[in-house]
Amino acid sequence: MPEPPHFRRILILWAALSIIATPIVVLVWAPGLPPGNGSNVASGQVTDNAVLLGVVTPIAALMIVFFTYALIVFRRRDGGPEEGLAIRDHRGIQTTWLAATSVIVLLLAAYGTIRLFDEGAGGGQGPDPVAKPSGSVLPVQVIAQQWEFTFRYPTFGGVETPHLALPVDRNIALHVTSLDVIHSFWAHDLGVKADANPGVDNVAYVRPSEVRSFSIRCAELCGLFHGHMFDTGEVMSDGSFLAWIHRAQVAFGPGTGALPKFRSHYNPAPHRRAG
Amino acid sequence: MNSVAARWLAIVVGTVIVALAIGLYVNKLVRAPTPVSAQQAGPAQAQLTLGTTPAVGKLGGQPTWVSYLVREGGQWKHTTTFDVPAHSLVHITILNFDGESGLRNPFLSQVQGTVGGTMQLDGKTVKNISPDAASHTFTVPELGIVIPIKGVADDAPNQCEEMPCSLSQAHETVTFTMRTGKHGWIRWQCFVPCAAGFFTGFGGPMQTIGYMDGFLHVV
Amino acid sequence: MNTERTARSPLRGLIGFNVVSGILLGIVGFYFGWWLGHQIHFTNYEYVADTGQNDIALFLAYLFFVVGFLGGLGFLRYPLARMTGREPSHHENEEGGIRRYFGLCTDHKVIGLQYLLGIGIFFFIGGVNAMLIRAELLRPSPQLFGAGNYLTIVSLHGAMMMGIMTSGVLGPFANYFVPLMIGAKRMAFPRIESLTFWLLMAAGAILTSAVFFGGLPTGWTGYGPLNVQANMGMDSYIIFFILVGVSMTLLGLNLIATIVTMRAPGLTWGRLPIFCWGALSTSGLMVLAAPVLAAVLLMVGLDRTAQTSFFQTASGGSPYLYENLFWFFGHPEVYVLALPGFGIILELVPVFARKPLWGYRLAVAGMLGVALLSFFVWQHHLFVSGINAALRPFYMLSTEVISVPTGFIFLCGMATLWRASIRYTVPMLFCLAWFFNFFIGGITGVFLSDTPSNVSTHGSFFVMAHFHYTIMGGLVFAFFAAIYYWVPKMTGLRFNEALAKVHFWAMFIAFNSTFAPLFAAGLLGMPRRVSTYASSLQPINIWVSVSAFVLGLSMLVFLANVLYSLVIARKPAEPNPWDSKSLEWQVPTPVPVHNFDKVPVIDSEPYDYGTPPPPPRPAKAPAAAPG
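Above: the input entities. Below: the structure tokens describing the complete assembly.
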């Protein structure tokens, strides 16, 4: 009995599965995935994930087709040969595999870099950001401490608030810092994450694109109440935001009055002192 | 020892020992809160009296650690989990026997989230205190409540060193009223770096439930 | 000597250099160190008085515990004999029944079995902690252990698994089988080989003792400055990882020396079994990375005791320094966990596919490539930390490039299945599950390595699911493949195959049912290491917890199989049940103390399976027969 054309069969099955699955994954499934479209960077991440899914779906299809085929067809059968076919190598396959994986990897890295330089993709970029948005930027300081985030608005008299509100469709620079240990500011719905390091001004950019509330969590283990460091922030229209910040200036006047002058970070004191 | 029965016996004994060890281990780690209930003080109202001390003394496992306590029936009890009624007004009195430390974030020197936005400090209505005079705070971030607690002056006579402190010893009294919401477990904590000796004043009692941290169990 | 021992009463047998003396002397040492620490750092010293924490006393207590433990085991006899000019013994405890397993023994086969049992114990403890974590996460707010003890459990689970399981494959299987595979009579440094095992046991005991000293809140990564703020339980973690680091370094050096210098005549590099290549490349990583871990934790220890400030911003230090040094170890570490798995899979698949390993050189290149590249990717753990933002594209590229050599391993495994005659034995099922799990682990790594995508997934359950797919789905599945494959050789006994199959299917299904939904939890915004989460995520978490409990039960099935097959039934295994052509199956069972009467001479390629392919027909191009 002549050996059936395994290689061609697998290629055909793979091509068929990829052609069906990839558009479904990329066009139907991926756009609805988190973090959603709460901001420019969140939308960017959704697009980014869609592209990555477009690359990995055919690879996954190859794995599924190959293993399903091989495990069924190349199993040991009763009365069949005891031993497999002693093939040790194939230069063409090796070269093709090496070339294909290298090209995919380089393309992925290039694409990721391009996306990264699109305003930093929502990640903390340290005190000296390399990817900045064009146009005016509203600075907001995020102060992490064990175990709460507070927020300071330097352009509104340095007022500090226990909750975060942001105006919609404005470039925001989040200046994330910590008063004690490492925390991480994570606004999941806005696609923003930046570690809060003591003595460091870690800047992340975001432009919220819809009026909504969003969750805030700490994403770096910071001690006892790490799991309780959560809050809900609000994206508001320009008018509502101005009204909110003016109310905050009145309501938190006494607390703000006790604060030191606004700084990009506050050096934590060691506080190893007697009681 | 080579008989099958002996080997079965060894396996059974071993299994029992392992099960016992796991039981002891879990028992050591399981939180065993002994909550103290706030006292009923009228319809949808409750009353709770807390105390803070520079050292918990014999009442706690770590005698030198700073701690919150609760006063019930004229006695100090060492717990920081309190049952409070839902959708009610809770009147809380805090008797502070500890000295001044100073806040890490001076913003928290402002009273926040109480009924009326104020508290009573030794009978006077105040909206904030000096951040450097703060000894502790009673803060419930989920409910937006911040109560800065003024410390006993360094030169005050008759200071309490460790629990149990008597009410005749030097202390500051803070009272306020807060509103509770729905059922649940809500954490509260102190924000003054008051854990003497620990890095940034935030280790030990600040990171151990039962000292400067606890839960409001809204029932 | 043997007859003399059997004549003694059982109680007399306990006296001497063994683990009982080790534990007793260790406890004496512990209390001596504790006392000494209180003399140096006395109790009315202000810091100690305020905090109730005497870190110096605990460090010294652990130090003297280790010294006493090793002394009781007899590790000091050799150096003391050399120092006093006496001729020391070169073989210890190589004869003498069951007693060999409870002390210093220089027989690599005894050490392999010691490792298997010892690692099993700590794997079990780590697993119990995992069950407790999932029990707490049944509800969205902390009710069972509370915020603090929950973090202790998470930290102990992570540190135990990452610390002890680094030696999970190399400890038992490389120590046992590398000398047999290369035709050597022993390892290069047998006494050090035993030391690596007993150091690991001391380390595991010390980490577990953290619950008596206030636990630790930092997770297995132990980031500063939280590690300075933490209770005394942090000292247990520091000593634990330093001992693990020393043990890893010595194990790596020993394997490198053995494989490089002690191969039998004719065993050229091109004939070295692929498992030995896995062990060799892992050893290289261990030797280069583990000392960095020991050093950085020593710095943390100094911060905690001598009040230095390596990682404290206010005094001129930097938490970034810790993150860099830790991950400079930590990323090679995850490949220390993965590479032995690669070795086992590629070693076993040819046996059950009845084919030679396809692309031997490519597989070796893949392992060495992964090992080399793993030193250049560590900052991908710090993409959002604010450190070196301009370097992020480089770390994104290096991380993605590492998938090229990993792809070689996949290609070699897949092509070995090509036109094979696959036998679905239990070890083979675990190997095939490895391909499935590791592929999911790898493909989700594509998203994590891509910086923009990483912003949302970093520090979330997505990462947690990813590394459980690579480490548990990779290493632990390979570990079980190796157990079912090699334990019949190690013990001469056969596993119950029905129970083994139940174990495999329960574990495979429960594993995927546990960790696949956690990708979704992470994408939906659930951070790692929290005891509270949004109540909308409760259904996912209940599903995951129940699956995790089934996963735990599947481990109990395995345990039952071990107890039933190896203790109760004790059915002898066939001498070569898998029909393997590898050298370790050609020696008799039980393996003689010095393995080979005559040093074997190797004159053939490894993996000499299969029927030779027919000569290509001239009419057809070779492309029709790939592989």
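Note for the figure: The longest helix of chain C spans residues 319-353.
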